[in-house]
Amino acid sequence: MSGVAARAARTLDGMTGTGEEREGTGRDGPWWWERRRAALLDVGLAAVSAAECGLEGLPFAREAGIPAALGVAFGVVVGSTLLLRRRWPVAVVLVGIGVAPAMMGFLLGVVGLYTLAACEVPRRVTVTLGSMSLAATFVVTYLRTRGDVEADGLLVVVLSAFMAVALTLPPVLLGLYVGARRRLMESLQERADSLERELSLLADRAEERAEWARTEERTRIAREMHDVVAHRVSLMVVHAAALQAVAEKDPGKAVRNAALVGDMGRQALTELREMLGVLRAGSPGPEPRPAARGRAARVAPALAGSGEDGPRLAELEVLVGQSRAAGMSVEMVVHGEAEPYPAEVEQTAYRVVQEALTNCHKHAPGARVVVRLAHREGEFAMQVQNGPCGADGVEPGLPSGGNGLVGMRERVLGLGGVFVSGPTDEGGFKVSAVLPASR
């Protein structure tokens, strides 16, 4: 018995018992109690047990031949050990078993067995101590009943067995049920906390993804606005500078340049309105007119970068012609046979050439520009190279945001292509890109 008690005491050191004190979230109880009401409950039970054992100490003192005061004091001390039921439930049960021959500690034994079964003690310890309590109760009841009742031996055995089972089995079963239920609730609570943490983490990740998507969308829209509008505005500035230079010398050329500036300005405004209409399409508002819906349908693919109605490679001749009309010396060289490419590949190629020509207008006025296109097996390559600025070139004074090369690189790399840019040995600048022919 002492070996079992020692092992169980080491196992249960610092362990709480029934879990009643675990209700709530904070700790406000003294000593080993986590809740104040749990401490008050144990103090009340200990007081009742001490009173009970104190009264039962009187007959025990008479039978043992010791002073009554000593018997009462012994009973009070024994009953008060119930105060330790949550801290050392094994010790409380052992005390109850030890005083069973003295016929005291009824409440102590019942509550001790319940606490032992409900706490997180190994089941073999519970079974061992429960069996010891059952045997002790049976033996004491049998010995007491056989001497006090005139009956046959079978009746005494049955009565003793009934008392032993009635005082041992119910508190043990109730404790096992309460302990299992408590552990189940704790498991469910832990699972709920885990799910709450996972939901919070998913919400944070969703917010991060949404923020990333918003940033990507703003970057994409800014890139499209830059590519679609900046080119025409750059040509307008170039024509306006030429118009200013020839206004007095050649009125006819000035008129033609003024007409070109007006046409390009109207085209730039049309494209800007169409793109803004697409951006507003996602917000609630009145139903757009059929003409506005048609323009939005034409421009939406340009914003998305993967539609069917965006700019194509066939329109590069027109793009180069606009630069020639602005006074730039541009030559376009095509190698290989043209073949159909995916819409996003053709649109990206068009935007790269467009932005490269815009940069030539901004940073290399009067320079000779060569646009090379190569249709190869499985890929499409392009190169826009300008020489040094011409001596008689007119400086247009165009502002630069420094985002043109960044936008071209993002477009090409987004399709899995290769992009290279940098100065040449002759003092010019070169932009090269290779796009896969299929995605």
TrEMBL record:
Gene3D superfamilies: 1.20.5.1930, Histidine kinase-like ATPase, C-terminal domain (3.30.565.10). InterPro entries: HATPase_C_sf, Sensor_HK_TwoCompSys, Sig_transdc_His_kin_sub3_dim/P. GO terms for molecular function: ATP binding; phosphorelay sensor kinase activity; protein dimerization activity. It comes from the Bacteria. GO terms for cellular component: membrane. The keyword Phosphoprotein applies. This is histidine kinase. The lineage of its organism: Bacteria, Bacillati, Actinomycetota, Actinomycetes, Kitasatosporales. The gene is narX3.
